[in-house]
Recover the amino acids of this structure.
């Protein structure tokens, strides 16, 4: 089985490196290309057995499963370019949220799916959000799930929760990294700790926190209850958070969804 990757930017790169590291595929099974072809050849320098294709058409012609890792507004023109090189046995996989599997099916003559990855997949963990086109057979779904399971937990989602699910799974690491960086910088501003030491302590805390949740030792509410003893320091900190957070996350979801609907409108114009 040959796996094609069109677009070797941030997420395309993560998929390539994760698939290889997890042994989901060997480098020789991968066919990659990028608009700036030098970036694709840079990956070949790292994985010599990997095949670089000069054009997306070559990838479509040679690969059995083609992951498309380009920006949303680049999809429609790319799909129309690829369509003559796709047959009913191939599977095109989108990694972007504003384009539905139904829209993909209107352009290409093959099977389609959507897999929204997360940067956490680079550590062979976290979730990938999956949706399958109506022409995917049970064996197609099994093949894709097996591939994705090497680097993440695939979770099938309905279209109406695509954006919020992606906010949590895919954008969430960036959101919480920002909050953690603010936490670290405030510690350095308000106390004698330096930023390097605060970063070390915070990073170890996050790793330990994740393992507590992973092992089911605590839920999010029970962890707060266990650490926040009556009259203690943690309780005072939680009090500040409750007062200051307010509608911050409501506004975050409103903003991400506004951008999402704007992208959907522009994409719909292309597909219509």
């Amino acid at each position: 089985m040959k796996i094609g990757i069109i677009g070797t930017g941030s997420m395309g790169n993560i998929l390539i490196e994760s698939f290889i590291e997890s042994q989901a595929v060997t480098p020789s099974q991968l066919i990659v290309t990028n608009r700036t072809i030098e970036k694709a050849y840079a990956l070949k320098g790292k994985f010599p057995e990997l095949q670089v294709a000069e054009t997306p058409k070559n990838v479509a012609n040679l690969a059995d499963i083609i992951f498309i890792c380009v920006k949303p507004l680049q999809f429609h023109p790319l799909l129309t370019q690829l369509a003559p090189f796709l047959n009913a046995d191939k599977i095109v996989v989108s990694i972007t949220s504003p384009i539905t599997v139904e829209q993909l099916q209107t352009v290409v003559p093959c099977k389609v799916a959507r897999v929204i990855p997360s940067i956490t997949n680079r550590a062979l963990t976290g979730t990938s959000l999956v949706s399958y086109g109506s022409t995917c057979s049970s064996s197609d779904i099994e093949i894709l799930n097996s591939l994705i399971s090497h680097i993440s937990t695939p979770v099938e989602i309905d279209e109406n929760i695509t954006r919020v699910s992606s906010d949590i799974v895919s954008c969430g690491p960036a959101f919480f990294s920002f909050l953690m960086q603010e936490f670290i910088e405030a510690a350095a501003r308000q106390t004698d700790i330096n930023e390097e030491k605060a970063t070390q302590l915070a990073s170890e805390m996050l790793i330990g926190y994740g393992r507590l949740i992973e092992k089911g030792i605590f839920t999010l509410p029970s962890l707060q209850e266990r650490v926040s003893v009556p009259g203690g320091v943690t309780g005072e900190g939680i009090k500040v958070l409750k007062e200051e957070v307010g509608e911050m996350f409501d506004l975050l979801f409103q903003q991400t969804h506004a951008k999402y609907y704007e992208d959907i409108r522009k994409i719909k114009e292309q597909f219509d």
DSSP finds eleven helices and eight strands in the chain. Residues 162-190 form the longest helix (29 residues). The mean pLDDT is 96.
